[in-house]
Specification:
The protein is of the alpha+beta class. Helix content is 22%, strand content 31%. The strands form two sheets. Strands 1-8-9-10-11-12-2-3-4-5-6-7-13 form a 13-stranded mixed beta sheet. Helix 6 crosses helix 7.
Amino acid sequence: MAPNDSAETNGGTRGTAAGRRKAARYIVPVAVAGVAAATIGLVPALASSGDPDLPKISAQELIEKIAASDTEQLSGTVKISTDLGIPSLGGLAGSFAPGGAGGDGGKGGSSADPQERMTELASGTHTLRIAADGPDKQRLSILDNTSEYSLIHNGDQVWAYDSKSDQAYHATEKQAGEDAGRDAGKKSGHPVPEGVPTTPKALAEEVLKAAGPTTSVTVDGTAQVAGRDAYKLVVKPKQSGSTIGSVTVAVDAKSGVPLKFTLLPAAGGKAVVDAGFTEVDFAKPDASLFTFTPPKGTEVTEADDAKAQHKADKGLGDLIPGADAAQLGAGEPGAKNTKVIGEGWSAIAEITTPGATGLPSKASGDVPAEAQQFLDALGDKVTGKFGSGTVFKTRLVNALMTDDGKVYVGAVTKDALVKAANSAS
């Protein structure tokens, strides 16, 4: 294994070169909270044939290599599993909607709707096949034992198809941009709902955003991922109170493309987020991958119809006041009713919910039994100078909802949330 230099961020970039200044924007973890809140994570069993002997490289040079990567054509298989420490979400989101779960023949909306299907990546183990040919052609497929769900973007057309239910979803790029975060989809290589990256590159970009005094960055040796030589970039918080222990990005030594992303919790144990290619090819994918015609008899839902259905459905925001506002996250400090306490890995978003109301009571009858069970499994009652409230916990992102309707959320410990609430009182 070749030795590698290490570096720690010190509030600015090292050197004066414009390339270094550009690359330095890529290293701060605030967005990790948003990533985890949007529910993804990964733990693949990736084959390793030993640590390759590669030329020495510094952390700054490796960051620059990632920033300079212009690869737009690739295809491959990504293994994904999630361990956020929460109950399985299978069927839960759909149970909030009148009429039952989302793939029940249309009662709760199309089973091919990306807004519904991407929540599957919040738990369990999944195999994805991805392909990209520039910014206008991408395909992502979630493989099951007997079925496949595919999301295809080709020019101004977006199609999604669920082979199990024989349902399809169709939108133009304009509609997909309004309803599913078009810009986020392009950056991550496919048109998925905003905040749901599904490749190592998309996950790495969420973390590698800006350098600052709260972050340590080193190169920690080499590895082989999907048969390709890679450097290991390790990003760690210097602050206490974060639930994040470290983030490791395996970077292709030749192209600079992130091949694997691993997020370890500060509390120890297996990875919370660990995404990696098991196979990857940087050749131009076959054009047929980006074409789709619904099979005869397929039930097709247009985006406008799906949007109207989403508005009619009773979602999480109706069960937990402020849940919709919480999606603004720490990454948008200018958002209405939201401010950020602290910085870097320990940043906490303080959100004032509309109407300043807390959780509905168990006796109110407004919360479905399955949803109440889910909330109870996550919640811990806490008290302090701020009054009383409930902390909803995962292995990564925790949120405190006070009884007077404020929400404190971040990739921080329960104690850090209570401290923030007390200081704001």
